[in-house]
# Entry
Amino acid sequence: TRIAEARSEAKADSEALAHRLETRIAEVRAEIAEVRAQARADLEAVEHRLLVRITESEAAIRAELKAEITPLKTEAVVIRWLLGVVLTLQVGIFIKLFVA
# Structure
């Protein structure tokens, strides 16, 4: 009978331990799921902030480049016009010297 009681107590103890372990495993799984969800939310927030910064930087760079390019375009037009005038004068001089 003592052996049966010892077995019964051991079985009860092991069942109680198994129950506590199953409960703790369930708690840990829930904590892991919560941490994953929080990490996912944090990553999405960081991704959004980076996307906003990149977009703002891109807009600023485009504006800066446009501000730098506009005067260059104007200068190119002026240079083309001056080259046209010089070419016209050269053609006129050539005609005056060698044709007339």
